[in-house]
Amino acid sequence: MLLLALDTATPAVTVALHDGTDVIAASSQVDARRHGELLLPAVDRVLAEAGLRLDAVTAVVAGTGPGPYTGLRVGLMTADAFGLALGVPVHGVCTLDGLAFAADLEGPFVVATDARRKEVYWARYADSRTRLTDPAVDRPADIAGQVAGLPAVGAGALLYPDTFPRAHEPEHVSAAALARLAAEKLAAGEELPAPRPLYLRRPDAQVPKNYKVVTPK
Predict the structure, then answer these.
(1) Over the stretch 151-175, which tens digit does the pLDDT of each residue have?
(2) CATH number belonging to domain 3-94+173-188
(3) pLDDT bucket at 215, cuts 50 / 70 / 90
(4) Contact 33/18 with Cβ under 8 angstroms?
(5) 96-168 under CATH 3.30.420.40, yes or no
(6) Alpha-carbon dihedral of residues 109, 6, 20, 101, nearest 10 degrees?
């Protein structure tokens, strides 16, 4: 197995290679505005670090969000392109699940990432491998009662200490954690879902209302 994992659902552009035993190379850069510019060089970098070529990859894993529309699409479309070019399966893993796995906490906790607009993408977990709720997007104050007293990880939790007073790192997801989680699930015979995006809300770009239609004479 050579698993290529990547995620662009948060400000982190993160890539990792997993050989079926453990992660053998990884790269993460935080830049919310340059996902498309940074992702492919990161893939080249981890392959070079591992001394491997892209055609050695046997499967691809992509973080499916939730995340902002543009950034999330960069990773998912790149993963699909690799899958088609190499003829290998492409799997999806929820980005929040990757953060939960990396946190490695015991007992119930929350993962929350920054959704902008003073909102967070979030979900509750029983442990680092078991999600209790579907991913959602809400204002922190609106979910305070649901997360009260629980430890929390992720940039969204760190941004709103009034709602998440027990927040701590990791701040962003790492492809290394995604790769380890995916490899563990695949080794156990679990079928991973297709890499479909979890947008949770409509994109910011909208067709203008009441615009003037120009017709040819």
Answers:
(1) 999 999 999 999 999 999 999 999 9
(2) 3.30.420.40
(3) low
(4) no
(5) yes
(6) 0
Using CA atoms, how far residue 2 sits from 54, 78, 191, in Å, is 10, 17, 17
Whether the bond between 41 and the residue before it is cis, its omega within 30 degrees of 0, is no
Whether 173 and 99 have beta carbons less than 8 Å apart is answered as: yes
- State the DSSP string of the chain: --EEEEE-SSSEEEEEEE-SSSEEEEEEEE-TT-HHHHHHHHHHHHHHHHT--GGG--EEEEE--S--HHHHHHHHHHHHHHHHHHT--EEEE-HHHHHHHHH--SS-EEEEEEEETTEEEEEEEEETTEE-S--EEE-GGGGHHHHTT--EESHHHHH-TTT-TTEES--S--HHHHHHHHHHHHHTTPPPPP------S--S--PPTTPPPP---
* Annotated domain spans of the chain: 3-94+173-188, 96-168
The model's pTM is: 0.91
